[in-house]
Structures are given as structure tokens and as C-alpha cells.
Amino acid sequence: MMTKNDDNTINTAAAARTRLEGATGKRFWRSLDEWADTEEFRDLIGRHFPSQMEVAIDPVTRRSFLKVMGASLAFAGMAGCAPRQPDEQILPYATNVPNGMVPGRPMWFATAMPLNGYGTGLLVESNMGRPTKIEGNKRHPASLGAADVWNQASVLSVYDPDRSQTVMQNGRVSSWDTFMRTIQTERAKHKQNGGIGLRILTGAVTSPTLAAQLRALLSPDQYPAAKW
Description:
CATH class of the domain at 107-159: Mainly Beta
Number of strands: 5
Helix content: 25-40%
Mean pLDDT: 77
Strand order of the largest sheet: 1-2-3
Order of helices and strands: HHHHHEEEHEEHH
Largest sheet: 3 strands, antiparallel
Number of helices: 8
Shape: elongated
Radius of gyration: 34 Å
């Protein structure tokens, strides 16, 4: 026995079907089940999975088949999105592990990061000599254990692929010994003339330690004619 509501439902479904038959433009599937009712799906299964054709067409077992197929597509997409990592050899220590370092156990170091003229107390997690994570220092009055996005992201600068891997001089690869010899020569030259022509270029300095070192460098007994 049909009721008035059933009759309205049938009329509404018929009207919707008629409206969709004349629809134009892009159409999208709302589920894998809806896609499975198309000729494109059956043609795909027949070409790539002929042995599963009966399973895909049978509405009882088709849902399980679609679950497996959906998982396969998801894993294939994840594998395609993973960037290819460069080949790199991982070698053990040639000598004993450095004192105080235990493989697999991180070490923590207290430091501070300046940002907009203010220093934030931080703790840096280091694994086998490489900083890997930054957290706030609960004992620092400025951070009280908090760390913002700038603090968290600063560790990425250590692994910047564009960062210089060695000492450079005039755009060419040099060495640390060459750098030290050059510095010693310049120091001796400016020591004789009191720092005439010596210029020190820095950003905003908020570190009391660095500011004291710069003042000592410009003192009368060092390089009084130099400019900061």
C-alpha cells in the first residue's frame, strides 16, 4: 500500500532524473560506488583486472573490491608525492663516540634567539651533533617555555641546501687555514695604523656580549680609527 508521501518521493526522484539527463558541464562522482556504475569503470576493470571482472560487476562483492582498489590508489599517490632523496652514505664514527654523547639519546643545549630586538630563551635538541628540534626554555623569563613559529623554523636554516658547505673567497672554494692567514695579515696591517679603513658591518645587535666585544675592538688600545 502506497501513501501520499511515497507518491511524492517517486515524483521527486523522477523529476531529478529527468533534470540530470539534460545536465551539461563537468560532472563529479560522489563515491566509488557511483563511479562503479559507469561504462568507463567497467572498461577499466576489463583492461587492467580481467580476472576481477565478475567481482567488480557483482553489487554484493563490489564494495570490498572498491575498498582494496581505493587503498591501492592512495598508496600509489603517496609514493608519487615523496621527493627523491639524494644518495648519501651513513658511516659510523672512525674513532670513539665523542665524550658525553650516547647514540640514540638526544642532548639539550640552552641558547637564545634574537627577533625584532628581543632575545627569546630556547632549548635546542641535538642528535649526534645535529640540531633537530627547538623548544622554549621554562627557566627563561622572556619565553617561560614557549616557542613561536619563527623559533621552531629557525632550525631549518642549518639544513638549507643553498647554505655554503665550505669557506668561500671571492666566489671560489677556499679553506679555513687560508681564511685565518688572511685575517691575521689584515689584523697586523690595521694594528699599525689604528684601524684606518677598517669597517665593521652588522645588523642590529641586542646581545650584551657581542656589544661588549665590539666596544673592546674599537677601544683606544685596539682599533680606535675603525668604524662600526
